[in-house]
Amino acid sequence: MSNSSSLTKFLLAFADTRELQLLHFSLFLGIYLAALLGNGLIITAVACDHRLHTPMYFFLLNLSLLDLGAISTTVPKSMANSLSDTRAISYLGCAVQLFFIISFLLAEYSLLTVMAYDRYVAICKPLHYETLMGSRACARMAAAAWGSGFLNGLLHTAKTFSIPLCKGNVLEQFFCDVPHILKLSCSDSYLGEVGLIAVSACLAFGCFIFIVLSYVQIFTAVLRIPSEQGRHKAFSMCLPHLAVVSLFLSTIVYASLKPPSLSSPTLDLVVTVLYTVVPPAVNPLIYSMRNKELKNALKKLIQ
């Protein structure tokens, strides 16, 4: 199979029976609607309520946009395939899907790193918060997160689709991703993409270390706060972000580092759903559960 010709990739269906295909469609539809509703409400509330025009909520608005982008890249196509009983995706469609899923996921990870810095400055350097987290600084950091994600998406997509593919056209995944496309390569030219993945992994590890060090200093500062009310407020600011980071990273790390002996098409699908489909649906719930300001804005918006 030559990657220069007009090709059709095939996605692994969740089930072969019509009943299970419809069940898959219904489950994905429910999750997708929950993500659209939750993230849509957060975006609208932050945009419309002037009390939420702060750095923390500005970054939360960007996170919701990225979540909507990520889940909209994979889930609608998978639902359409189940509903129409097909596994096909065009060669161009596969490339576009790969570009956007990499871009949105890496931009989200960069944004979560920026949000950790925001929490660090708010708690550990409160007197310098307005100076360090001004509107221009926040806009630059958000733009850098989006830009780095889309630059990585472009590089990975261009490199992956420059590799000759000759081992069939079946991707054992419900969307196009790099590891499963590389399995179809017929030469050692995939080593260039592996090198690019290694560079991206090193940068991601650097972000992880930054997040960990930020929270070490945050928790050290919080435990020094004399009042219980002050400690509770500080923890309420940080725990939702920490929960989102933990959910995002734990599933990706498990998917990347799990032993081959534990690998199976079904398990790979479940793990992939956990880091591409579930977080966009549950992130709004995590952020709104312990946040009175956001709860009040959402209630006002709904009423």
UniProtKB/TrEMBL annotation:
Keywords: Cell membrane, G-protein coupled receptor, Membrane, Olfaction, Receptor, Sensory transduction, Transducer, Transmembrane, Transmembrane helix. InterPro entries: GPCR_Rhodpsn, GPCR_Rhodpsn_7TM, Olfact_rcpt, Olfactory_GPCR. It is found in: Cell membrane. Its main location: membrane. Residues 38-287 form the G-protein coupled receptors family 1 profile domain. The keyword Transmembrane helix applies. Coiled coil: none annotated. The chain crosses the membrane at residues 21-44, 56-76, 88-107, 197-222, 234-257, 269-289. It comes from the Eukaryota. CDD domains: 7tmA_OR14-like. Belongs to the G-protein coupled receptor 1 family. This is Olfactory receptor. It comes from Apteryx mantelli. The lineage of its organism: Eukaryota, Metazoa, Chordata, Craniata, Vertebrata.
